[in-house]
């Protein structure tokens, strides 16, 4: 389990390989793994991409207002810093509201430290995350063609 990786195959033709961190957030890693295994993330867009900040996806409606039909997760805030390539769960103002949406930091975002659950780190393919179309939402958003865990 400690060496599990999530691969996001993007429509740009590139793969983003993320090292999962169950040591930091076991419940969140379990959810991401479960959703990826069910094909939940396949075809889902990055609906919010802010240059110099982060790329957010994981909403099946592509609006940023939805999630999976599974119950929301209890926060697993940790001391891992939000640096470039950090993968963390999106949530509402309510700490225990993360569900399926996540974001990948495009740059250091230490103001998020301790307030969002870090669950992974990009090991390769960060250039594909940086290349995602920008916007809230982007005119033509980048899409996760397939998400797999190995």
From TrEMBL:
The entry lists its GO molecular-function terms as: peptidyl-prolyl cis-trans isomerase activity
What segments bear the compositional bias annotation Basic and acidic residues? Answer: 69-83
Q: Which GO terms describe its biological process?
A: protein folding
Positions of region (Disordered): 57-86
| Keyword line | Isomerase, Rotamase
The record, for Gene3D superfamilies, names:
Cyclophilin-like (2.40.100.10)
List membrane-spanning regions: none
Q: What reaction does this catalyse? A: [protein]-peptidylproline (omega=180) = [protein]-peptidylproline (omega=0)
Q: Where is the PPIase cyclophilin-type domain?
A: 14-150
Q: What is its EC number?
A: 5.2.1.8
Instruction: List the InterPro entries.
Output: Cyclophilin-like_dom_sf, Cyclophilin-type_PPIase, Cyclophilin-type_PPIase_CS, Cyclophilin-type_PPIase_dom, Cyclophilin_A-like
Which SUPFAM superfamilies does the annotation name? Answer: Cyclophilin-like
Which CDD domains does the UniProt record give? cyclophilin (cd00317)
Which Pfam families does this one have? Pro_isomerase
PANTHER family given for it? PEPTIDYL-PROLYL CIS-TRANS ISOMERASE-RELATED, PEPTIDYLPROLYL ISOMERASE DOMAIN AND WD REPEAT-CONTAINING PROTEIN 1
Function according to Swiss-Prot or TrEMBL: PPIases accelerate the folding of proteins. It catalyzes the cis-trans isomerization of proline imidic peptide bonds in oligopeptides.
The entry sums up its family as follows: Belongs to the cyclophilin-type PPIase family.
Name listed for the protein in its UniProt record: Peptidyl-prolyl cis-trans isomerase
């Amino acid at each position: 389990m400690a060496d599990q990786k999530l691969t996001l195959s993007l429509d740009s033709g590139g793969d983003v390989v993320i090292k999962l961190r169950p040591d930091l957030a076991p419940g969140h890693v379990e959810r991401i793994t479960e959703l990826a295994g069910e094909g939940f993330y396949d075809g889902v867009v990055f609906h919010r991409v802010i240059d110099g900040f982060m790329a957010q996806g994981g909403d099946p409606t592509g609006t940023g207002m939805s999630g999976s039909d599974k119950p929301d997760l209890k926060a697993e805030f940790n001391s891992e810093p939000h640096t470039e390539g950090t993968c963390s769960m999106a949530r509402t103002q309510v700490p225990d509201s993360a569900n399926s949406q996540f974001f990948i930091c495009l740059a250091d975002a230490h103001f998020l430290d301790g307030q969002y659950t870090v669950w992974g780190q990009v090991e390769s393919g960060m250039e594909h995350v940086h290349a995602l179309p920008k916007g809230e939402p982007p005119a033509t958003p980048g899409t996760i063609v397939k998400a797999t865990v190995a």
